[in-house]
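quick one, 222 residues, struct below
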Amino acid sequence: MDKPVAATQRGAGRRRAGAGWMAAACSPRLQALAGAAAIALLALPVVRKPMEAGMATHMLAQFPLLVTAGALLAAACPDWLRSRIARWNALGIAGLVAAAGVLALSMIPRLLDLALADPRIDAAKWLALLLCGAALRLSWRPAGLVVQGFFLGNVLPMMAVAGVLYQEASARLCNSYRLDEQAFVGQALVGLAGAVAVAWLAWAAWRTMRDERASLGEHAGA
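---
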């Protein structure tokens, strides 16, 4: 066997082995276990109290981590439940609308105060963010680029506007946190909205070009 051919076959074998290892490491069961472990870790008082002591860590760390944990848990959603959800979640629209609502509510400063003062509101916050992550996980791929763009086109400007309001407010909007923390969170929200927009646009452009190349290849082969 020629050396180039043998090297190519060895490389292909290594890639298949690597892909198999990654598939095993990212199995739905392991993802769900990782999500459950994240929730248990975030619920520990030694982690939870310091995280909720600052507005930045509360909104920009705990909130995204809970959403991520919910998305990981959704990986273990059984097929029969996915089928039932898909009946009312055509093109991921219902799930993304629900997620947008949760994200909008999570940026209201008054709700941060209520979550810190009332355990029932805090429990509702955790449940809502976990369900938001699950909804994003189950809705993002069926949505496609057009619906994804519509979703981000509503959520990201809302996030940026909230960030500007946080910065320009002369008084504390959230009684539990300092004014300088509020301004920093506002700057972070504006920057995060811009970064997510640029990242999604770059990914959408790459995916569109990839699909066009694949389509051209199929036509050339035919």
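The first helix runs from residue 3 to 25.
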